[in-house]
């Protein structure tokens, strides 16, 4: 990487731009141009400048990628080698990713506006931890012996699903790649990955590293492109057995429809969220304020489980509001490659404008803007950390996923009231509870309709903890051994035993 003046690519002075090595499609173990020859731009959200021109996959390219994946599944080594052997290759891939941490974190930093430092200490290490977790699970896929009635012996086999289409979002390009791909590989599946068009660069680099690690050709294919073309070609493909998707609820609906209209492929969806963070009177106010700031402003609010609805009990509400505003104003917005920055730019111009539009909705619907609410720089897609109060449950900013640094702060009196308010949403991805009372923590965690509940913490993810949503936040689980089930078929085998001495 180098700090440039205004260079030949038109980059702004002082902006660090990583070297970009891979911009072609990765199909059957090779980097190739799109069949059409088309490319698309991926832009740097710090400046709006073009980072690279990336090969644009369309239906013809997806057909080639699916054929490669199908051939690798039906005739290749990957599903047929032992789980131990698959695990060894996956561990080697994890080692290679670790060796390239700096470069990979820089790619996501420039492509998605993510903080370089956190990429190096959170995103990439979390991804390799995920990969190693499932490498360890690859040789522990077991069926069951059944007690069938009659003169029979019964057992089950767990067999790989086949070709899996993986469609991932732009907010955590590295972590999402391995969140989906790792359990699929461990199960013995082959994959066709479509990264988000905003952030395709690191996925292509991971394809290169997978080849170096010894993943056979055709097992991992990466086809950057747009949702309505490349994504739609995957979800409607008659030779794709399953689709794993993380993204918006609106696109999740389209994927289910496409799967139903094609070959009834299985679908797992991790979709939107509008997660409540509930702070009770007995909480340590300073701790709760810091937790709420992290819950909504981390990764510039571009987190599916962002704690965008903060409910504070009336006894500490005024103190909390004052300190929350001070905390937001101290959250430094700046170049994600600057180690003193707490928050970088929104991923692209479209998301930048969408967040600002929601802020205008909040003001027009009668919420009170306490801090923020404006662009934070003359260039790039930076937005100030924003806090609203006087928010009611029927407002857009309380009901719709903003995916930006916008906190809605609300007051409550009783436990029953806040449970009802927390569940007043079409989503159910996560929730947070801050209290010193075990009784309150237990009652509320069992009452809130969400797939993950954090008590006195937030963003406490672990590969062993299943993650997914209730309601319109989707279905199916990532992480944990339960995630393997999405990529496995269960087969019952019944054998006649006419002369067995016992049954």
Folded structure, characterized:
The chain is α/β, with parallel strands linked by helices. The protein has two domains: 25-271 and 475-490, Aldehyde Dehydrogenase, Chain A, domain 1 (3-Layer(aba) Sandwich), CATH 3.40.605.10; 276-462, Aldehyde Dehydrogenase, Chain A, domain 2 (3-Layer(aba) Sandwich). Helices cover 36% and strands 20% of the residues. It contains 14 helices and 24 strands. It has helices at residues 59-75, 83-99, 101-112, 116-137, 173-187, 201-213, 227-235, 249-261, 285-297, 317-329, 349-364, 396-399, 415-422, 438-447; strands at residues 2-3, 16-17, 25-27, 30-32, 39-43, 50-55, 145-146, 152-160, 163-167, 190-194, 220-222, 242-246, 266-270, 276-279, 309-313, 368-371, 386-389, 406-412, 427-428, 430-434, 452-455, 470-471, 474-475, 488-496. The strands form seven sheets. A seven-stranded mixed beta sheet has the order 16-17-18-15-14-20-21, with helices on both faces. Strand 3 (25-27) and strand 4 form a beta hairpin. The longest helix is centred in the first third of the chain and has 22 residues, at 116-137. The protein is globular. The termini are far apart. 52% of the residues are buried. Mean pLDDT is 96; it is low at 1-12. The active site is at residue 270. GO terms for molecular function: aldehyde dehydrogenase [NAD(P)+] activity. This is Aldehyde dehydrogenase 1. Keywords: NAD, Oxidoreductase.
């Amino acid at each position: 990487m180098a700090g440039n003046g205004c260079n030949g690519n038109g980059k702004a002075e002082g902006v660090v731009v990583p070297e970009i090595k891979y911009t072609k499609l990765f199909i059957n173990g090779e980097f190739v141009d799109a069949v059409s020859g088309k490319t698309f731009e991926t832009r740097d959200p710090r400046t709006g400048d073009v980072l690279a021109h990336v090969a644009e996959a369309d239906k013809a390219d997806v057909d080639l990628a699916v054929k490669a994946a199908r051939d690798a599944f039906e005739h290749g080594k990957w599903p047929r080698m032992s789980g131990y052997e698959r695990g060894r290759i996956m561990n080697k891939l994890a080692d290679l990713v670790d060796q390239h941490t700096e470069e990979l974190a820089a790619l996501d930093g420039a492509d998605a506006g993510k903080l370089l430092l956190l990429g190096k200490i959170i995103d990439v290490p979390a991804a390799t931890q995920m990969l190693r977790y499932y490498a360890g699970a690859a040789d522990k896929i077991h069926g069951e012996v059944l007690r069938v009635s009659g003169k029979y012996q019964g057992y089950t086999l767990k067999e790989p699903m086949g070709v899996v289409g993986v469609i991932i979002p732009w907010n955590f390009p590295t972590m999402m790649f391995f969140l989906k791909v790792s359990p699929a590989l461990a199960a013995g599946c082959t994959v066709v990955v479509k990264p988000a068009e905003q952030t395709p660069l690191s996925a292509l680099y991971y394809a290169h590293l997978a080849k170096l690690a010894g993943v056979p050709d055709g097992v991992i294919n990466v086809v950057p492109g747009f949702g309505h073309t490349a994504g739609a070609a995957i979800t409607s493909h008659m030779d794709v057995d399953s689709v794993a998707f993380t993204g918006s609820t609106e696109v999740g609906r389209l994927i289910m429809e496409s799967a139903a209209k094609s070959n009834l492929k299985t679908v797992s969806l991790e979709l939107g969220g509008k997660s409540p963070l509930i702070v009770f009177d007995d909480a340590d106010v300073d701790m709760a304020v810091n937790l709420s700031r992290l819950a909504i402003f981390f990764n510039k609010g571009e987190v599916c489980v962002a704690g965008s609805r903060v409910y504070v009990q009336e006894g500490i509400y005024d103190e909390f509001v004052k300190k929350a505003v001070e905390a937001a104003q101290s959250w430094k917005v700046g170049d994600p490659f600057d180690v003193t920055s707490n928050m970088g730019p929104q991923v692209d111009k479209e998301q930048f404008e969408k967040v600002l539009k929601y802020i205008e909705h909040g003001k027009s619907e009668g919420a009170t803007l306490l801090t923020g609410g404006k662009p934070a720089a003359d260039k790039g897609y930076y937005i100030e950390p924003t806090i609203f109060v006087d928010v009611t449950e029927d407002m857009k900013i309380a009901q719709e996923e903003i995916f930006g640094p916008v906190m809605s702060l609300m007051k409550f009196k009783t436990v029953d009231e806040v449970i009802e308010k927390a569940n007043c949403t079409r989503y159910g991805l996560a929730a947070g509870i801050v209290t010193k009372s075990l009784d309150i923590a237990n009652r509320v965690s069992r009452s809130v309709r969400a797939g993950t509940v954090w008590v006195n913490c937030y963003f406490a993810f672990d590969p062993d903890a299943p993650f997914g949503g209730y309601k319109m936040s989707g279905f199916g689980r990532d992480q944990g051994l339960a995630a393997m089930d999405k990529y496995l078929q269960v087969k019952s085998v019944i054998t006649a035993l006419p002369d067995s001495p016992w049954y």
